[in-house]
Design a protein that fits this description.
By secondary structure, this protein is of the alpha+beta class. It has 2 helices and 8 strands; from the N terminus they run βββββαββαβ. This is Amino acid-binding protein.
Length: about 130
């Protein structure tokens, strides 16, 4: 039996990807989440957080699930995100990727999560729900 490439864990909650104006402050409502990501550019303030915490008036895309690559990934490792995104692209699954110091997080739409997990398992990834 061949070895698994990496372990990926499906996080339980649903998340949203929000777009705020670049001059807005980081909102308090994101801080209830165990996972949130904030990116500020000269064009926008982009936030990923729990869907249930996003106020109705905020521009966002909801119904995202997160696949977390388990463990700390060394900076010298090459192609992890590329491999995962290629597998999912070949299955017609769009992603939103976030990388942190330790690991990668791949967001897929709720409607695609089962197919994403099947595609990853077929390609020797271990997926934990």
């Amino acid at each position: 039996m061949s070895e698994k490439i990496l372990t990926i864990r499906l996080l339980e909650e649903k998340y949203g990807v929000c777009r705020l104006n670049n001059n807005e402050s980081i909102p308090e409502w994101i801080k209830n989440s165990d996972f949130f990501s904030i990116t500020k550019t000269c064009d926008e303030l982009s936030i990923v957080c729990l869907e249930k915490d996003i106020p109705d008036e905020v521009k966002c895309e909801k119904e995202w699930r997160i696949l977390k690559v388990e463990g700390q990934l060394d900076f010298s490792l090459v192609g992890i995100l590329s491999s995962i995104s290629t597998i999912l692209a070949k299955s017609g699954i769009s992603i939103f990727a976030i990388s942190t110091y330790d690991t990668d997080y791949i967001l897929v739409k709720e409607k695609d999560v089962d197919n994403a997990m099947k595609a990853l398992i077929k390609n020797k990834y271990e997926v934990i729900v």
